[in-house]
Design a protein that fits this description.
Helix content is about 60%, strand content about 15%. The chain has a six-stranded antiparallel sheet with strand order 3-2-1-6-5-4, sandwiched between helices. The chain starts with 12 loop residues before the first helix and ends with a helix. It is α+β, with helices and mostly antiparallel strands. The protein has helices at about 15-25, 25-45, 60-70, 70-160, 205-210, 225-235, 240-245, 280-295, 295-310, 320-329; strands at about 165-175, 180-185, 200, 215, 255-260, 265-275.
């Protein structure tokens, strides 16, 4: 027992009892009042209700006995205790009801707040979707403008070399393990068509130029002899017949040059023709010198093209392209 009570004890028995008594105080008063009224009824059967002032007392003991045996005293005490108990219970229930009402109001406010938050969240979601649509649209517009500007530069080069409807110039950039078309130009509308097709990293003239700095093709048969043409492309560039037959432009002469940015091959520029007599050794030297002179611009075209395919940033080369076109046209 010495371990349960005292200054060092851990017992909370009396604290727990006090807590129970505090919470049930009004119930206890009502119960005591009811008991006292019952006792008063018991004494009322044994005595005639007399005036307390008629009592005579010889000592304190008789006074106490008189009060204890008096139904009047028990009625008064019982009534007071019962009233206090009932009044306290009423106030306690009133307070409980107020708290319930307060909690109910908070719940209503919480639900209203939840609805407001849901509405705000939905509005933000719609604004986010709208913003993303705008960003996506602007990104596409900027990318298109950049491709058109690079295409304008290619057009000036096309005119400089006096190409005809059997030639085409295209710029590709390496992206995610393949080659994507950045821009192209040809006087022939069929050859000038843009597409989003990706080219394999290990096939074709583009792949050879990207790996080995440049690729020159002057021995390929024309597509007039389709059997020999297919055989040449299969053996030298790894194409299958279906791929060869699907080519819109069946070129037999190529000059392809790697586009280098900070000593890293980032893309390829391809000059091609269906005319077997156009690409002479002198022409090839001219193509190579032109690419070397404009290597920085080509690298910028590819760098920006790759970036604009991912972000909607402002075109940074517009003024430079226009300046180059003006100087060469």
């Amino acid at each position: 027992m010495s371990h349960k009570f005292g200054f060092t004890g851990q017992s909370t028995m009396f604290v727990d009892f006090a807590g129970v008594l505090s919470k049930g105080w009004y119930v206890l008063l009502s119960s005591l009042g009811t008991i006292m009224l019952a006792v008063a009824g018991f004494f009322a059967k044994k005595e005639k209700l007399a005036n307390i002032t008629d009592w005579s007392y010889d000592n304190h003991s008789e006074i106490i006995d008189a009060f204890v045996d008096s139904s009047f005293v028990w009625v008064v005490l019982g009534g007071v205790l019962f009233f206090l108990g009932m009044w306290g219970s009423y106030k306690d229930q009133e307070e409980q009801q107020n708290k319930i009402d307060e909690l109910a109001l908070k719940e209503v406010n919480a639900k209203d707040l939840e609805k407001q938050l849901e509405a705000a969240s939905e509005e933000l979601r719609q604004q986010k979707n709208s913003a993303q649509e705008v960003i996506s649209e602007k990104r596409s517009q900027i990318k298109k403008i950049h491709e058109e500007l690079v295409g304008t530069w290619l057009k000036s080069v096309y005119k400089q070399f006096e190409f005809q409807s059997t030639e085409r110039i295209t710029i590709y950039y390496e992206n995610l393990g393949g080659f994507s078309l950045l821009a192209r130009y040809s006087k022939n509308p069929e050859f000038n068509k843009q597409h989003r097709q990706k080219f394999a990293i290990n096939q074709g003239v583009i792949s050879k130029a990207w790996r080995h700095d440049e690729c020159i093709e002057l021995e390929c048969p024309t597509s007039d002899d389709i059997v020999r043409y297919r055989k040449h492309l299969r053996e030298r560039y790894g194409y299958d017949n279906d791929k060869i037959d699907s080519l819109t432009m069946k070129s037999c002469r190529y000059f392809a040059k790697a586009i280098v940015d900070a000593d890293v091959h980032k893309g390829v520029i391809v000059f091609e023709s269906e005319n077997p007599d156009l690409f002479t050794q002198e022409k090839i030297r001219d193509f190579s010198e032109h690419c070397n002179q404009h290597q920085a611009h080509l690298a910028e075209f590819v760098r920006d093209g790759l970036q604009y395919s991912k972000t909607g940033q402002k075109v940074s080369v517009e003024a430079e392209i226009i300046k180059m076109v003006e100087s060469e046209s």
